[in-house]
Task: structure prediction
Amino acid sequence: MRKNLLRRCSLAWVVVMLLGGCASQKEITYLQDAGVLDSEAIPQNYEIRIEPDDLLSIMVNTRELELAQMFNLPQVNFYLNSSAGTSSPSNRMLGYQVDQNGNIEFPQMGTLHVAGMSRSILSEYIKTELVNRGLLKDPVVTVQFLNLKVSVIGEVNRPGTFEVNSDRISLFDALSRAGDLTIYGKRDNVRVIREEGGQRVIATLDLRSKEVLDSPYYYLKQNDVVYVEPNKARAGQREINQNRSIGTFASIVSVLISLAVLIFK
Result:
């Protein structure tokens, strides 16, 4: 009788553990509703657009190098102090700062309104203007962002701010740079904080569903902040640690009071 009871209890325990494991897997697995081989077109609206406060590198090249130099900002040498007290030289390229009206001041061409353009559009625009104004015959114009970055905070392994050197960085790219979510990060409540059009927008995304791939916030923009919220287990763990610290402090105080009573009795 006892053996049968033990067997039943053991079986029940195994079932509970399996069910618990399945529930945990559902909470942490990405893109759960994706098929074995799903295929869909990739939207082409991920190209980052220029915004106020962006810092742009605009390089103009042509066969007549001397003529091109007037359009290129110089590189500036500066020194970084190390922890050992020594300094090492480094080069920093000056850029064109986009003002609050979305404009830059470009040599020989004056004020250019660049906000809303992509890198490729601005490059082609400057190239066309240089030719039409008779400034250069066969220019090659290269535009790069110098201060493009996104931040990832919350329940990830390596939170921080990351520089972006491509026009396309997805939410998964940013999370990968941050070392992925910890086991305590909520996969169904990842938030993207974005400033655009004079407004701050907060979008909530569910990484467990493939619908996240169709979100306008899946491809990140400059200065986006990704926040991963902690789950209940993390909140409970912090509360336990806090209570444990309070209990330890109370114990120390109690011991000190007891010693004081014995000493001064």
Observations:
- Residues 9-23 have pLDDT under 50 and may be disordered.
- The longest helix spans residues 232-264.
- The helical segments are 2-28, 65-69, 119-132, 171-177, 232-264.
